[in-house]
Amino acid sequence: MKLSRRASWFLLAFGAWSWVIWVTFAKNLWKDGSGLAFDDAGDPTAYFWVHLLLAVTSFILGTVVGLIGLRGVRANK
């Protein structure tokens, strides 16, 4: 299967966007001072673990989608 140039660039941009958004989110999660991510003793809460899992999953999927896009861009040259 060959991706169009437009679809390839979209996938590549989506992969990069996913990394930008979720890296920012993970940084903010780690520095959370609202009491959602860490309890009073400083231990991670269920909120922290669920959102960390979401971020890691999005990193992986963003990387895979971005690599598919990159391969498509290279194949269209």
Describe this structure in words.
The protein is built from two helices and no strands. The chain is mainly alpha-helical and 77 residues long. It has helices at 5-30, 46-75. The protein is rod-shaped, with a radius of gyration of 17 Å. Helix 1 (5-30) runs antiparallel to helix 2 (46-75).
Offer a quick outline of the entry.
With 77 residues, the protein is mainly α. Helices cover 73% and strands 0% of the residues.
Q: Based on CA inertia axes, which overall geometry fits?
A: rod-shaped
Percent in strands: under 5%
Computed Rg? 17 Å
Mean pLDDT: 94
Distance between the termini: 16 Å
- Give the low-pLDDT segments: none
Helices and strands, in N-to-C order?
Answer: HH
SSE order and pairing:
Blueprint: H1 5-30, H2 46-75
Helix pairs in contact: 1-2
Question: Which tags fit this structure?
Answer:
mainly alpha, single chain, 77 residues, rod-shaped
